[in-house]
C-alpha cells in the first residue's frame, strides 16, 4: 500500500520567503513489513549480490557495552516475543511462561566477542528506478547499504555503500555469511521491509539557518500555541515543517541534540550532501503531522512486537538518526556518517 504524507499544516515558505530557495526534495521510504526479493528495493531484505564477489567484512575495533549475541539469537528472541504479544491472554496471565522466560534469558545472555573479521549485515537495497532523484555513478542503477551491527566510534554501526549495475550481476550469491557478532540488544538488525517511496519537500533544521531567521521562526512558533499553552510552540517549525522523520533519501540533515559542524570531503574539500538516513522511528509525539494518512487509524487487534512507527525495529542510540553523506564531486571519495 502506498503511503501519503499529509500536506504541511502551514506553507512556511509563503510566510518566510527566505526559505523558498532552501527547499530540497527528500524521498521518504516508508518501510513496512514484507518479504522483498533480491530484485526489489527493501530495508533488511536480501541483496542482489554476485556469487563471485567477496562478501564484505568489518575489521575495525568494536565497542562492547554488553556481550554480543548472534544474528540467530536476535531472530529467535524476536519471534518468541512476537508470538507472545499476539497470543490472547487472560487479564492476570504473564506474557511468557517459565520455559519461555528461560529461553529468552538464554538467547539474551550473549557470548564472548569474536576477534576476527565480522561479516556485514544488509541494511537497505535501493533501485534507482524506485527512488525519484536518487543518482549514482555512471552505469549504476542500484545502491546497497550494509553495516557491521556493532558499536564503533561515536557509538554507531559502521556502514559501507556499494553501487552496481544490476544487469551485470550474473550468478547470484544465495547464502551470504551472517555476522558473527551483533550488538547485545539487536538494535542494528533491520527486519525485512518493503518500501513505499514518496517525495516530500524539506527545509533546513533551525540549526542550519541564519541566526536571525531561526529566531523569527521560533517567535512565530510561540504565537501558534493554543489558548491553554499546549502545542510545540517555538519548536513548531523544527518538528512539523522542516525535516521529515523516518528512513529517507536526500533532503536535509535532522540536526537536533547537536549543532551542525563542517562536513567536507577529505579528498577534495567539497561539502558533503545527505544521501541516506536511518531513523529510529517514522513519527513520535512531536511529529504527529508527518504520520501517513494510511497509518492514522490504530491497528485493529494486537500489533505484535513491532511498533507501527518502527517496522524495521532499528534503534540508533536513544532514538536518534544515522545519516550517510556523500561527496558531490565523486562517488569514489569516502562517505561520511553522523549520528544526529
UniProtKB/TrEMBL annotation:
Gene3D superfamilies: YwqG-like. Residues 287-311 are annotated as: Disordered. This is DUF1963 domain-containing protein.
Amino acid at each position: 500500500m502506498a503511503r501519503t504524507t499529509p500536506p504541511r499544516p502551514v506553507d512556511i515558505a509563503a510566510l518566510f520567503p527566505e526559505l523558498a530557495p532552501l527547499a530540497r526534495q527528500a524521498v521518504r521510504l516508508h518501510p513496512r513489513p514484507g518479504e522483498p526479493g533480491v530484485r526489489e528495493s527493501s530495508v533488511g531484505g536480501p541483496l542482489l549480490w554476485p556469487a563471485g564477489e567477496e562478501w564484505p567484512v568489518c575489521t575495525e575495533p568494536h565497542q562492547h557495552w554488553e556481550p554480543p549475541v548472534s544474528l540467530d539469537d536476535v531472530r529467535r528472541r524476536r519471534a518468541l516475543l512476537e508470538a507472545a504479544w499476539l497470543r490472547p491472554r487472560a487479564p492476570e496471565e504473564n506474557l511468557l511462561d517459565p520455559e519461555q522466560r528461560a529461553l529468552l534469558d538464554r538467547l539474551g545472555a550473549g557470548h564472548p566477542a569474536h576477534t576476527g573479521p565480522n561479516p556485514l549485515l544488509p541494511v537497505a537495497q535501493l533501485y534507482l528506478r524506485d527512488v525519484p532523484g536518487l543518482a549514482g555513478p555512471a552505469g549504476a542503477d542500484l545502491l546497497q547499504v550494509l553495516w557491521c551491527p556493532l558499536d564503533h566510534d561515536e557509538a554507531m554501526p559502521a556502514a559501507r555503500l556499494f553501487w552496481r549495475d544490476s544487469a551485470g550481476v550474473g550468478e547470484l550469491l544465495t547464502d551470504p555469511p551472517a555476522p558473527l557478532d551483533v550488538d547485545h540488544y539487536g538494535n542494528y538488525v533491520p527486519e525485512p521491509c518493503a518500501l513505499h517511496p514518496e517525495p516530500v519537500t524539506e527545509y533546513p533544521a533551525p540549526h542550519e539557518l541564519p541566526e536571525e531567521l531561526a529566531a523569527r521562526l521560533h517567535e512565530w512558533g510561540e504565537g501558534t500555541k493554543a489558548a491553554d499553552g499546549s502545542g510545540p510552540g517555538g519548536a513548531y517549525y523544527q518538528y512539523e515543517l522542516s525535516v521529515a522523520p523516518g528512513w529517507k533519501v536526500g533532503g536535509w540533515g535532522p540536526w537536533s541534540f547537536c549543532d551542525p559542524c563542517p562536513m567536507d570531503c577529505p579528498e577534495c574539500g567539497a561539502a558533503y550532501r545527505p544521501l541516506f538516513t536511518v531513523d529510529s522511528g517514522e513519527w513520535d509525539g512531536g511529529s504527529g503531522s508527518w504520520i501517513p494518512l494510511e497509518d492514522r487509524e490504530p491497528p485493529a487487534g494486537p500489533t505484535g512486537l513491532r511498533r507501527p512507527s518502527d517496522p524495521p525495529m532499528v534503534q540508533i542510540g536513544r532514538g536518534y538518526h544515522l545519516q550517510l553523506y556523500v561527496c558531490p564531486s565523486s562517488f569514489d571519495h569516502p562517505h561520511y556518517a553522523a549520528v544526529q
